[in-house]
Specification:
The chain is of the alpha+beta class. The chain has 10 helices and 10 strands. It has an 8-stranded mixed beta sheet, with helices on both faces. Pfam families: HGLS. Its EC number is 1.13.11.93. One of its GO terms (molecular function) is dioxygenase activity.
Length: 307
């Protein structure tokens, strides 16, 4: 039952994301023109405000309840941003093309924020609904024993919690105050806990020889701009992973007393290198499966308005 819950949940999050992401739709259309009907998702990310009912601990416990396990964690000091990544509990020995995407969950360190910023964040985090973790854990226990009704309720509970911002919209002044110190935190204040990007596993596509070739396809055939921060490609064989992403496309976003221009999403691309180059990789564990903080730091800047 729990396997079905997490698969249904991830598919729902992906379907909602792709329906709202013009970039994703253009990329899918471009891939179909090349005869690529199916691709594998590598990971997606959800960032939350820190608070009594919000944050990385709550997200971790929710995904743990449906059968995800923590694989690693790191910190982005420039953004005061803690993050960890999780994968399906049975992914290690599964074919790489059949594993659900990893989930990256994150929040921010309140004690490293200036008092002015901290007060704004605490104000809105305090207005969130109660954490669903205790109820989710109870339902997960029943679903594990085969209770279909509990499984359905668990899916609905988590879906509702991950639907975005459940606190009021900030004012333009509050947004710009936070943005001047931490642009990523300002983005989360506006949009809340919802996937800010999904990532394609380019290394699992037969049509591209490397990430450079895929980027050429994105720029010349799909005609989308790429994130230039830290170089178009972040990483490479020496660290086990190469990453790139589209530049976010600003849209008009309403706030409490006006509107701003801010990207809502972007699409990331990864090339994961095999752990043992002399052996043909097949399973998920045959590839490097972690992340490099300094590269993730640059990729997430696709959400900034100046991209």
């Amino acid at each position: 039952m729990l396997k079905q819950v997490r698969r249904t949940l991830i598919h729902q999050l992906w379907d909602k994301y792709r329906s709202q992401s013009v970039q994703t739709q253009l990329i899918e259309k471009g891939l179909k023109h090349k005869g690529i009907q199916k691709f594998t998702l590598d990971h997606f990310a959800i960032i939350d405000l820190p608070g009594p009912h919000t944050g990385i601990s709550h997200l971790n416990q929710l995904f743990s309840a449906i059968g995800y396990i923590v694989q690693g964690r790191d910190y982005l000091p420039d953004k005061q941003n803690d993050f960890l990544w999780m994968t399906e509990c049975d992914s290690l020995h599964s074919p790489a093309t059949e594993v659900l995407p990893q989930v990256v969950v994150a929040d921010f360190r309140l004690d490293e924020l200036p008092l002015t910023i901290r007060k704004i964040i605490e104000k809105y985090a305090a207005k969130t609904r109660p954490s669903p973790v205790p109820e989710a854990q109870k339902l997960a226990g029943r679903a594990y024993l085969g209770d279909e009704a509990a499984a359905n309720n668990l899916y609905s509970l988590i879906t509702h919690y991950l639907s975005g911002r459940d606190w009021p919209l900030p004012t333009i002044n509050e947004f710009h105050t936070v943005q001047a110190f931490n642009e990523l935190l300002a983005w989360v204040l506006v949009f809340g806990r919802t996937p800010n990007h999904f990532t394609l596993s380019v290394h699992l596509l037969d049509h591209f020889s490397d990430l450079n070739a895929f980027h050429a396809f994105i720029e010349t055939e799909v005609e989308l701009p790429l994130n230039q921060d830290g170089g178009v490609i972040k990483g490479g064989p020496s660290v086990g992973i190469a990453q790139g992403s589209t530049a976010g496309m600003p849209k008009t976003i309403p706030l409490a007393d006006g509107s701003i221009q801010l990207p809502t999403d972007f699409v990331e691309f990864v090339w994961r290198y095999p752990c043992y180059p002399s052996v043909k990789p097949v399973l998920w564990e045959d590839y490097f499966t972690g992340f490099v903080a300094q590269h993730a730091d640059r990729v997430i800047e696709s959400l900034y308005g100046d991209q």
